[in-house]
Specification:
The chain has 78 residues and is mainly alpha-helical. It has three helices and no strands. The radius of gyration is 16 Å and the shape is elongated.
Length: 78
Amino acid sequence: MSETLKLANQLKRVKGQIGGIEKMLSEQRNCEEVLTQLAAAMSSLKSVAREVLSGEAVECGRDEKTQERYAMLLKRFF
């Protein structure tokens, strides 16, 4: 499976999680349950971000500008 397809599948799962959270909110579900699902969705998105950044890591040693961009991305997301 290609990396792009893997990331697309992960994002589809996140989309499903978000849809579930929206439904929970409309049903006025328990706050703790909603927050648990929000934390799970956030964790999934961070996982996708780490995968994207790991692709950038391959490039980070090539030149100073790329190293600076990679360092900025790391600070921004983690």
